[in-house]
Design brief:
Helix content: 40-55%
Largest sheet: none
Low-confidence stretches: none
Pfam families: HTH_SB
Strand content: under 5%
Domain Sleeping Beauty transposase HTH: 1-53
Protein name: Sleeping Beauty transposase HTH domain-containing protein
Organism: Anguilla anguilla (European freshwater eel)
Mean pLDDT: 79
Length: 75
């Protein structure tokens, strides 16, 4: 299953942090960039804890079902 829509450009993230460091709140940032307030909060929270906003691979065991679906695995 693909991930949800990701923030496409590094430039948008750069703008987000410039606005945040200027002292604006989540609501002002979300209106300025056209992102949801929860998305803005999640990106800033990730940046605070990890120091980066790069998407890391998911943890866990790889799926046994091929990406095409279960219909191809039945006899």
């Amino acid at each position: 299953m693909p991930r949800s829509k990701e923030i496409p450009e590094e430039r948008e993230k750069k703008d987000l942090f410039e606005i945040y460091q200027a002292g604006k709140g989540y609501k002002a940032i979300s209106k300025a960039l056209g992102l949801h307030q929860t998305t803005v909060r999640a990106i800033i929270s990730k940046w605070r804890t990890l120091g980066t906003v790069v998407n890391h691979p998911w943890s866990g065991w790889p799926a046994k079902i091929p990406p095409r679906g279960t219909a191809t695995t039945h006899p």
